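Reminder to self: keep the SMILES exactly as supplied, no canonicalising. Ligand is S-adenosylmethionine.
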Amino acid sequence: MRRVSLRDVVDRLRRLRKGRRRSLERFYAGEHDPFGFDSNPYEAAKFDDLLGVIGAGPFEHALEVGCSIGSFTERLAPRCGELLATDISQVAVERAQRRLAEHPNVRVERRTMPGELPEGPFDLIVCSDVLYYLPARRLRRTLGLLAARLAPRGSIVSLHWLGDFGAAVSGDEVHDRQETAWRDLEHVARLRRDGAGPQGAGYRLDRYDRRP
Ligand SMILES: C[S@@+](CC[C@H](N)C(=O)[O-])C[C@H]1O[C@@H](n2cnc3c(N)ncnc32)[C@H](O)[C@@H]1O
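Structure tokens returned for the bound complex:
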């Protein structure tokens, strides 16, 4: 498997037109795994951190938004009764569907946030490296809708890289806005991995739970 360097990934991201669907479809059409999720040790370590904060479950109804080609979905699937994974890109969704064909508890659907967020309720919602594709107003709406779809005792786990790729909103801003938008939830885990990943920028990882 050819390994995409982290610097290449950031250069590619800069060329993406602010999370528009057409440019994401082109991005995926050019290469099977343009983000290097299956080849970069950084991504594997990121997924381990996510699983650590998510915990063993089991989760009855889980939602992963922005699932890409299903690399993390595959890791999460054994902890879930039912897992719905969604992405804006049809090309990415078809790859994830092929990858997860042997997992009868997983459904992968093409859906754009915030307009096509599924109804729920979900006892686990995972948003990893996805919310900074949304311009500020759509991000605010999305954060509200995600909380509204969380079941009693459910958890939202969110992770974002803190580097600069010309995103609509930075990773730091996403996590700062979460604190306000999800103030009615309990902030039960916060982790910051300084120095990790592209540009040595690190990432933030937070978990919020709904207390009944
Ligand atoms: C950087 S990838 C993250 C993949 C995976 N969550 C991870 O952390 O490994 C971001 C994904 O979000 C998707 N995406 C971007 N904007 C979206 C939106 N508005 N609704 C749904 N998916 C979106 C992209 O197509 C892309 O596959």
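Points to follow up:
Residues 19, 24, 35, 37, 65-68, 71-72, 87-89, 92, 112-113, 128-130, 133-134 surround S-adenosylmethionine (CB under 6 Å).
Residues 66 and 87 are 4 Å apart (CA to CA).
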